[in-house]
Amino acid sequence: MFTGIVEELGEITAVENLDDASRFRVRGPVVTDGAKHGDSIAVNGVCLTVVEHEGDEFTADVMAETLNRSSLGALAAGSRVNLERPTAVGDRLGGHIVQGHVDGTGEIVERKPSENWEIVKVSLPADLSRYVVEKGSITVDGVSLTVVDAGPDYFTISLIPTTLALTTLGIKQPGDPVNLEVDIIAKYVERMLGDRAHPAVGAQEATK
Q1: Coil/strand/helix, residue 142
Q2: Low-confidence residues of the chain, pLDDT below 70?
Q3: Where are the Lumazine-binding repeats (predicted)?
Q4: Which of 202, 111, 98, 100 is nearest to 157 (CA)?
Q5: Secondary structure class of 84 (helix, strand, coil)
Q6: In 10 A of CB 19, how many CB atoms?
Q7: 62: closest CA among 20, 27, 6, 14?
Q8: Are 141 and 169 in contact (CB under 8 A)?
Q9: pTM of the entire structure?
Q10: What is d(CA 139, CA 103) in angstroms, rounded to the nearest whole number?
Q11: Which residues are within 8 A (CB) of 161 and not within 5 positions of it... i.e. 6 or more apart?
Q12: What sign does the dihedral 116-178-175-157 (CA atoms) show?
């Protein structure tokens, strides 16, 4: 589990395209400190497993399902990425509960800078809009953020200087893809309310 508080802005140093997957080599001195084979690291909000670790770099295999569902397939050597290690039991939950399981992708639609922050508009897939509410939480490229405004096919977020300086959201431009993970609590609530509305279906699934 992650919290959406990015630890460092890393870099893709190599991408090896395989038959049905890709192998990424990622540089991140902070997240590789003490890393070992089998550890999890979130890359732009996608939970990946460390295959190898050498110096300040690690490699991770990305399956076709992940490449198709997320924006990782658009990454190349030199791409900057948000990196976060899983939260440890007993640590502060600085953002919100983030699984590292991307629900879909959006695009940066518009950026409106101001003196102390920047409002960014992001497109929202239709099947995710019901999970996004004003003042709710959403993860964008692995960054835990608060929704400012939620529309039927978009939402806006307000980015402070720290977020702009230390994450990819400071360099993404209109048209660039971003990974989206909605609040898991919203999905659980929907499922529970659905089972209550259709108790026979819920009972049947419970016996499978």
Answers
A1: coil
A2: 195-208
A3: 1-96, 97-193
A4: 111
A5: strand
A6: 5
A7: 20
A8: yes
A9: 0.87
A10: 10
A11: 116, 117
A12: negative
